[in-house]
Amino acid sequence: MSKVSIIISKGSFEGVYPGLIMANGALMEGIDAILFFTFFGLDAIIKRRMDNLKVATVGNPALPIPSLVGILPGVSSFVTKQMKNEMEKLDIPPVSEFIEMIHDAGGKIYACKATVDMFHLKKEDFCEQLDDIVTVGQFYEMSLDGQIIFT
């Protein structure tokens, strides 16, 4: 059977969703999927943060607004709301629901131990779908014979 391991290291709205979409797509195609969250990507699986991710409006060349405008208060929230509205039209769920769907479909969800330790987090800080907190070595071991994608 095929396997894909996806590393999510960015905690912005647009940094998390590509990995979730790719993992979900893999599972729908019968491909095993492992999600490995590290650094600020952990925000996607931390209970109190996962549904509050924002679009990065400063230094984002894909946005049709100048970076200087992106620093103004409320701009990130406005752009995030617009993005969420567009995604809702396409029936793309909020992060917490997406994580639950992926987990329920057999996807594995892991947090990087070094990052968890560095940020002084505990297992109870994370959503219930978290399978484990693992080292990079353990992640590589689980990812053998598969593709690794860094988003």
TrEMBL record:
Enzyme class: oxidoreductase
GO MF, one example: oxidoreductase activity
TM region(s), chain numbering: 20-42
UniProt KW keywords: Membrane, Oxidoreductase, Transmembrane, Transmembrane helix
Pfam families (UniProt xref): DrsE_2
This protein's name: NADH dehydrogenase
Superkingdom of origin organism: Bacteria
Record-linked Gene3D superfamilies: DsrEFH-like
Cell inner membrane listed as a keyword: no
Organism lineage: Bacteria, Pseudomonadati, Campylobacterota, Desulfurellia, Desulfurellales
InterPro entries, per database record: DsrE2-like, DsrEFH-like
Transport keyword on record: no
Species the sequence originates in: Desulfurella amilsii
Enzyme Commission numbers on file: 1.6.99.3
